[in-house]
Amino acid sequence: MPLIPEEPQIHESAQGPRATASTPRPVPGPRSAASPRPGRPVPGPARPAAPAPRPGAGQSPAQHPENRSDQRSTPQLQLIPAPVDGALDAAEEALDLLLDSGRAPGEILVLTTGDPHPWAAHELSFGEAAYWAQQDTGDDVFFADASAVERATARPVVIVAVNGGDEETAARTLPSAMARAGTLLVVCGDPQRVTELLGAGAAV
Fold first, then answer.
1. Handedness of CA 39, 153, 88, 157 (dihedral sign)
2. Which of 18, 41, 66, 188 is the most buried (most CB within 10 A)?
3. Alpha helices in 18-150 (DSSP H)
4. pTM beyond cutoff 0.85
5. Would you call 155 helix, strand, or coil by DSSP?
6. Where do runs of H (alpha helix) occur along 101-164?
């Protein structure tokens, strides 16, 4: 599959919105009213929730469980170059752009190969049952560790932050993430390492 190690940008198919990334900047990311993300105050008024997609036409097969079959097209792959210690920031930048462009929070899954996202670490402190129940609710962005990718459910958009972790786990994550992405897979990391991981993942 072709990688695009160029100017950071998010492209989607004709069914979805299009957003163009600029120079990476700190992004507060999504928060639910019940469980705000710890340690990240939001400057200014809160952004209103992104509109939900129109029912019926224009939705991807991943939004229709009855349509999840071999007829589903391969999701588009977008690579956003980022160092290991900047991959999570790049993933949040991509997430912010997608939300601003109209993607509903519940359509997005974010995976990390190294340290867990602060939101995931915070929510797991209340127990795994409560944490995974939020995925089943499906009304907000869900953050998960790559080691648990097999437990993550499919969503139209999957963002992977290659922010560390052992090679075997990282190599398994990208094919699994591709299988769970309905229309778009965004990978944030070092282009050379991502290319190597894709090759290793195919061999695992």
1. negative
2. 188
3. 87-100, 118-124, 128-137
4. no
5. strand
6. 118-124, 128-137
